[in-house]
Design brief:
It comes from Actinoplanes campanulatus. This protein is of the alpha/beta class and 255 residues long. The chain is 50% helix and 17% strand. The two termini are 31 Å apart. 44% of the residues are buried.
Length: 255
């Protein structure tokens, strides 16, 4: 359980936080360090970011925040998310996100900052932040969907499927779940066959012409999460989430 690194020309960084890959604060920092480690290895030509289980990433571990006194866990998670998203973006080689099941909150931050996304046909993408009394990762969602759809998804917390993102061109391939890692690796090996120095310079140059500073933009969003927490809205929403999550499944409200 945790973050695993499988080295090679195509390196794999794998999230594994059962049951839903809700990543604890320390896990985000571990993920940032592992992606940086993979990218710093001169033998690495491409990184595949994948996950075990039925979902790619459910975002931050809200239960951890609510059982930790004070703001320590909230601050650690916010800094950890910023570090992990930045590590994916700044990785000196291309990063391919292999997304299955749910990709929510912080999962969108990871996929949105990846260079390419390959998704299983059961993958859905969404930001439930408004329902959790928080804001963030609209910066990264805007790299996956058009502006007005991004706003709709933020306000309503609706999810969109992999095939819709494929129509936008932001998901490269949609495949059955059983073939997801294989499909991501096939694209990775195509890139890895190129001159590694040229690919590293290409990554650097593409980041250099990006019209949005994704790190600064995301930290701006996070400022409103801190504000909502001070206003009490964050705690109220997180408490409600935990209460709902702890109810028997048959008693929960479903949308």
């Amino acid at each position: 359980m945790g973050i695993a690194l499988h080295r090679g020309t195509v390196a794999e960084v794998v999230l594994d936080f059962p049951p839903v890959n809700a990543v604890p604060a320390a896990g985000w920092h571990d993920l940032a360090a592992t992606v940086a480690e993979a990218g710093a290895d001169p033998a690495t030509r491409v990184v595949v970011l994948a996950a075990e289980g039925r979902g790619f990433c459910a975002g931050v571990d809200i239960k951890e925040m609510q059982r930790t006194a004070g703001h320590e866990a909230l601050l650690a998670a916010n800094r950890g998310c910023a570090a992990a998203f930045a590590a994916v973006y700044d990785c000196p080689v291309p990063v391919i996100a292999a997304v299955q099941g749910f990709c929510l909150g912080g999962g969108v931050g990871l996929a949105g900052n990846a260079d390419l996304v390959v998704a299983a046909d059961d993958a859905t993408f969404g930001l439930p932040e408004v329902d959790r009394g928080a804001l963030g990762a609209a910066t990264h969602l805007a790299r996956l969907v058009p502006q007005q759809l991004m706003r709709t998804m933020v306000y309503t917390c609706r999810r969109v499927g992999a095939w819709e993102l494929h129509r936008f061109g932001t998901v490269l391939e949609v495949v059955p779940p059983a073939g997801l890692r294989r499909a991501a690796r096939r694209v990775a090996e195509e890139i890895a066959a190129k001159d590694p120095l040229v690919i590293r310079r290409a990554k650097e140059s593409l980041n250099g012409i990006d019209p949005i500073d994704v790190k600064r933009s995301y930290r701006f969003e996070q400022g409103f999460t801190f504000e909502l927490n001070l206003d009490g809205a964050g705690d109220r929403a997180r408490d409600a989430f935990v209460r709902e999550a702890e109810r028997p499944f048959t008693e929960r409200g479903h949308r």
